[in-house]
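[Meeting: bench + compute handoff]

Bench side (C.D.) handed over the final construct sequence. Compute side (W.E.) agreed to return the predicted structure before the next meeting so the bench team could plan truncations. Sequence as handed over:
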Amino acid sequence: QVQLVESGGGLVQAGGSLNLSCVAYGSGRAFSGSGYTLAWFRQAPGNEREFVGKIEWNGGATYYADSVKGRFTISRDVAKNTVYLQMNSLKPEDTAVYHCAAGHGRLYGGQPMYNSWGQGTQVTVSS
């Protein structure tokens, strides 16, 4: 089982930027990311959780939801077992709790395929 710990959320004005981090831990705290996909999801109050984007640990291929394409960038640091979500040009509608998730295989937005989830970090964008 993979444990995920997010950080980096906060309050920012519209048009601003935030960089979220997600550290992955495996058994004995070591994480072997080979074959995994790590993704970011978000959930705003009263809304269902939605897919933001993902990155494949092997090779670093990324894929984004249309709502964030061109504004958000996902990257990873293999040495630090960390995935990042760089968010630029933030809008009030980006306000949500952002969750990191991990699953084995080449995954996309299907939430049931991700079997490890972090607690989330709050992002609030003021207008």
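W.E. noted at the follow-up: The longest strand covers residues 96-104. C.D. will use this when planning the next construct.
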